[in-house]
Specification:
4 strands, 4 helices, 130 residues
Length: 130
């Protein structure tokens, strides 16, 4: 099945982000899965402050990992990543299922951040003020 993991790591050290992504990728590959892509979105403010591992976090480094794996491998990977004290939050979403190749073959590995939409909203707000 095709999954997408959206992970938020404590900000400040890109090596920690790489290490967590590598750990997740190695676990997927060692159990017969396929990593389709990894996208680094950078550091953003969280929607609300979060307390994780006795630390208050206001922002986090976001990355997305797309992979094909069995449900058991996905659960193992999510549990292994979630117990890491450097992680703030992690979520996994199923994008497609086995047997429907036409549905998932067109899904790219890279997930782009939609910056044009933000620019369009800024232009609309500027037009309203005039």
């Amino acid at each position: 099945m095709l999954y997408e993991m959206i992970a938020v790591v404590r900000p400040g050290n890109i090596a920690e982000v790489k290490d967590i992504a590598l750990t997740a990728g190695r676990l997927i590959l060692s159990h017969g899965g396929v990593v389709r892509g990894l996208t680094n979105w950078g550091t953003f403010l969280l929607t609300k402050p979060t307390k994780k591992h006795q630390m208050r976090q206001d922002s986090g480094h976001h990355f997305i990992l797309r992979f094909d794996a069995s449900p058991d491998v996905q659960m193992k990977m999510r549990k292994a990543v979630a117990i890491d004290p450097r992680m703030i939050r992690c979520g996994v979403v199923k994008l497609g299922k086995k047997g429907t190749l036409g549905e998932i073959c067109a899904v790219p590995g890279r997930v782009e951040w939609r910056k044009p939409a933000v620019a369009e909203m800024a232009m609309i707000r500027i037009g309203e003020d005039a």
